[in-house]
Amino acid sequence: MRKKEMIAMLLAGGQGSRLGVLTATEAKPGVPFGGKYKIIDFPMSNCINSGVDTVGVLTQYQPLKLNQHIGIGIPWDLDRRTGGVTILSPHMKSKQGAWYTGTANAIYQNVEFIEQYNPDYVLILGGDHIYKMNYAAMLDFHKANDADVTIAALQVPWDEAPRFGLMNCDETQRIYEFEEKPPNPKSNLANMGIYIFNWGILRDALERDDKVHDNSDFGMHVLPMLLAEQKRMFAFPFSGYWRDVGTIESYWEANMDLIQTIPEFNLYEEFDKIYTDADHQPPIYTGPNAMVQGALLSEGCEVLGQVSGSVLGPGVIVEEGASIIDSIIMEDCYIGKNAKLERCIVDVGCTVGDGVVIGCKNEGNIPNALRPKIYDTGITVLGENTVIPDGMRIGQNCVIHGETFPHDYPDGLLASGESILRDKGKEGGTEE
Fold this sequence. Notes:
Blueprint: E1 6-11, E2 32-33, E3 37-38, H1 41-49, E4 54-58, H2 64-70, E5 84-88, H3 103-108, H4 111-115, E6 121-126, E7 129-131, H5 135-144, E8 149-155, E9 165-169, E10 175-180, E11 189-198, H6 199-210, H7 218-228, E12 233-238, E13 242-244, H8 248-257, E14 285-286, E15 291-293, E16 296-297, E17 302-303, E18 306-308, E19 311-312, E20 317-318, E21 323-325, E22 328-329, E23 334-335, E24 340-342, E25 344-346, E26 351-352, E27 357-358, E28 380-382, E29 387-388, E30 393-394, E31 399-401, E32 413-414, E33 419-421
Parallel strand pairs: 1-4, 1-6, 4-5, 8-12, 14-17, 15-18, 16-19, 17-20, 18-21, 19-22, 20-23, 21-24, 22-25, 23-26, 24-27, 25-28, 26-29, 27-30, 28-31, 30-32, 31-33
Antiparallel strand pairs: 2-3, 6-11, 7-13, 8-11, 9-10
């Protein structure tokens, strides 16, 4: 096997339970974003745009759709005889299998995969953030500082700093202290979860920490251990767009960022393009009475009604008289005649009947009764393949998953904060 200077290990096994019903049947990195993309497309595209042509993708929770999306890596030019993309799922290691129990544990279980390329450096990535980054520039920074470990760092607003793992650095950007969600932070330099390790340092640290922690984690265990051993650890400053889309609100906001007059995050630049596995679709069609304003429409959409401030995935049909405002409608959804949707997220394959009103502000912002920490910002969410019958009215912070019928809606109404879940296992996990 030909030696590689640096390979990437992309952690894509997380459930993302704070995304609720959106991750009931899909790993968080596989959730659609920006119409035609999936969240994992962003770090995958960053790799090939940075010259990193060997990527191991570690999957675990609900991996089927994600594995099918990645395939052999054709959209990212990663279908290569040497290197390319490899799916790395938990596997048998003697008499029993072993799940990935922490971020570092997942890498430790795939040491043999890394060893076959004998890299000088290993790039560790999360599969659940929206951003563009030149990892080659980060590697140059790592080499210039003769670093053992380099961590990508983002300056966050001071009032938000207590929500992050933070790093304190000297004037050369060398890290001398970690603080995990401190109430009174000393700095606002947040750990982005993007690491470059010298392979020898990483391999030794993984082996030693595995003997101590069976749920070995980079942030909790490996990095503090290396810092205590006075390894050369540096913070690589990043100043571009970066979003953790780990909650319903942050996911909605990141999609809305795409449709500003001057987008904060630009998908249309000629350089550093984002690639995805997309089927060929017919052109977008807007009818004679359609009105589209400040919206992102994907291939194959047919709009006869009104769309404003929204993101539509491929193959969405919006019938005459329908109105979609400040919403995300994913692939192959049907919105019936005279339906009104405001501040909604509608997952793949949903059918919304004629005259349905979703997001009606009838009782104010009442958090969801089942998941008050997940659905609490006025956004109503329909899970994959949900069906809403004609004429129903649905409030804010509601969650619906499955085929529903008129008798599910007392007096034709689902009040704000209420839920209809055909499968009680589809709430999207526990609160975090």
